[in-house]
Amino acid sequence: MSKLGSKPFMISVVGDDVAGDLLMRYWKTARLPTEGIQQLPGIITPAASLIFDCNGELAAAVVSVEAVETFLTPDWIKQFQPNIFAAPVVMVDANLPPHSLEVACQIAARCAIPLWFEPVSVAKSTRIASIVNHVTFASPNEIELIAMANALSPKKGFNFVPAEATKGIGQPVDYLFEQLKPSIQFLLQKGIKMLIVTLGSNGVFFCCGELSFTKSNLNLSTSSFNGIYELMKETCLPKQCVSYVESAQRSIKSFAFHFPALPASVVSLTGAGDCLVGGILASICSGLNVMQSVAVGIAVAKAAVEAETNVPAEFSLSNVADEAKKIISAVKPLLLE
């Protein structure tokens, strides 16, 4: 986010170890505030060990987040209520212990701050059950989406069959959407305003159950409008998509779009999901609308998979904007109801 012009305030915990020192030094070098980050002796900085298959896709992961589960307490979070109250958007991830997650959401809700829920994993995505009424955005992949829906449904009847397991059924995107539509509709009915369902190389489904969310809901000042805003502010959806939204507004319906991914020269898929979410959040905070921001997030994720590091050393905002405009021009409406 900082490489795209945003200055996020983080509330977290690291250990007084090599990894913790590196992270704190990086954040300070990037001129990001670190007051919300505890650095404690005797604990291990959260870390993940990832195993990839021959196609570069994540096959397995072992994650250590005991420090977050133990030390990111409600009392620590409450110390930073003024920062949360002043935020354009609050993002929480499901690594937070349930009570801390609930407290963070309640604080944001007091000032009607839009809240983004990042599921993290299938197992932890179910933590949405206690906070769903506070969630503005959620960004699950296909399997996390199903897990979230089942966590909120007494019948737990939602399921998903990956496209590769059923060859020859329609086009991949159409097939995916039909498979996921019941879960999407259910979660929107439960109160989530917007779902950004990540599909890997198939792009993103953007699904919205409330049309009133605009940048006027955000705590933005004109100083927030940075380079990516200036490059993207005039970019509009294709006419067919504009007509679709207008029709949905008249009939008070939910709506959905498919945002494609652009072809990429993949070096590593590590970090793509984080860059997608970071790109969307940075763009929203810069003043762009949500649709423009989703396109920027996909363009940022493309830059990430083409880099050797998890996050590119730097982003060319003009290149990101050019890629985002290509994505917006190819957006297609989907029939949600």
From TrEMBL:
List, in alphabetical order, the Gene Ontology terms for molecular function in this entry: hydrolase activity, acting on glycosyl bonds; metal ion binding; pseudouridylate synthase activity
**Stored InterPro entries:** PfkB_dom (IPR011611), Ribokinase-like (IPR029056)
Q: Which Pfam families does the record match to this protein? A: PfkB
- Asked if Transmembrane is a keyword of the record, the answer is no
Name the source's superkingdom. Eukaryota
Q: Name one GO cellular component term.
A: cytoplasm
Query: Which keywords belong to this entry?
Result: Metal-binding
* Bilayer-spanning residue ranges: none
Residue ranges annotated for the Carbohydrate kinase PfkB domain, each copy included:
2-207, 252-307
Gene3D superfamilies found in the cross-reference section: 3.40.1190.20
SUPFAM superfamilies attached here? Ribokinase-like
- The entry's protein name is Uncharacterized protein LOC109721541 isoform X2
As recorded in Swiss-Prot or TrEMBL, the protein's gene is named: LOC109721541
